[in-house]
Specification:
single chain, alpha/beta, Arginase, Chain A, 8-stranded parallel β-sheet, 31% helix
Length: 334
């Protein structure tokens, strides 16, 4: 594979460097796995100046309150992502030709200290922002969204479209502990990284401890769309409303794999029956096309609960859908 030259982004050589390895050149089961068979670059490497979209793993589950294992998600997601090809079949998008995309490795984490892990993740994503790189992240549990938003929204709050079975708007766990995978978006709203009136949550369902998270979110102006409303109104109508709420201002997208029904994606820590089909999930993400998306994540894939890799395959397929949205977003550089 040829090296990029000093001619800058957009040159023929650069495009060749940033193209994924084809299955016609190397079997998909061969070679060292990277996200979507893209080049692996260290963030400090000068070649990252050419990167428009960086795919990053965040191998951490220190915010998990029940079934652990999402720290192993990025590795399995990388492995299954070797099945991703170059062209979106429905949209015709060719993300690797429209933007320079690379695997930027894993964010630093600390498996023994939650506060330090959050700081390390924020520091890494701050560097991405400074370089003008739009991040597509693979978790990890859902708490990783908080330090990512802290970096990306340091200059002011952003909107968010959030696909999930749970609101993640809880206040605390176990006598006042504020940072778990059930609290990231409450902290992000409180700390001014999310504009609650531009936050839409889609797919909420499942049994509840209480409804405090729902009441708090509604009081802040969050639009919460339960799965029953999605069923009644349909994907197109709900996504049209979501687009109207976030408008053309900067917006983050967070996709928890447990938004998808466990019949399709059992490998997650907090499964809830009655979720999206994979086809509905694809359509919803495709209907984000054209929004001012500044970053996205796919979280909560837990390989120990699906060693077959089927859940990870669903996850990386959604990541490819998100990548195609990011490749066409107005704020993504190139």
């Amino acid at each position: 594979m040829s090296e990029p030259t000093a001619s800058g982004p957009g040159s023929e050589q650069d495009n060749e460097f940033f193209q994924p390895v084809s299955g016609f050149d190397l079997p998909r089961y061969a070679g060292v796995p990277t996200f979507m068979r893209l080049p692996l670059l260290d963030l400090e490497d000068e070649k990252t100046d050419l990167v428009d979209i960086g795919i990053v793993g965040v191998p951490w589950d220190g915010g998990t309150t029940n079934r652990p294992g999402t720290r192993h998600g990025p590795r399995q997601l990388r492995d299954l992502s070797t099945m991703i090809r170059r062209i979106h079949p429905a949209l015709g998008t060719r993300p690797f030709e429209e933007r320079n995309v690379a695997d930027l490795g894993d964010s630093p984490v600390n498996p023994a200290d939650v506060a330090d892990a959050l700081d390390r993740i924020t520091g890494f994503y701050t560097k991405l922002k400074q370089r003008g790189i739009t991040p597509l992240s693979a978790g990890g549990d859902h708490l990783i969204s908080y330090p990512i938003l802290k970096a990306l929204a340091a200059d002011g709050p952003v909107g968010m479209i959030h696909f999930d079975a749970h609101t993640d708007l809880f206040d605390s766990y176990f006598g006042g502990f504020k940072y778990t995978h059930g609290t990231p978006f409450r902290r992000a709203i409180e700390d001014g990284y999310l504009d609650p009136k531009r936050v839409v949550q889609i797919g909420i369902r499942g049994t509840m401890y209480d409804d405090e998270d729902i009441k708090w979110g509604l009081a802040q102006g969050v639009r919460i769309i339960r799965i029953e409303e999605l069923d009644e109104r349909g994907v197109d109508e709900v996504m049209a409303e979501a687009r109207a709420i976030v408008g053309d201002l900067p917006t983050y997208v967070s996709f928890d794999i447990d938004g998808i029904d466990p019949a399709f994606a059992p490998g997650t820590g907090t499964p809830e029956i009655g979720g999206f089909s994979t086809r509905e999930a694809q359509r919803m993400v495709r209907l984000l096309d054209g929004l001012n998306v500044i970053g996205a994540d796919l979280v909560e894939v837990s390989p120990p609960f699906d060693t077959s890799g089927g859940t990870a395959w669903v996850g990386v397929s959604i990541m490819f859908e998100l990548l195609c949205v990011l490749a066409r977003a107005p704020g993504t550089k190139r």
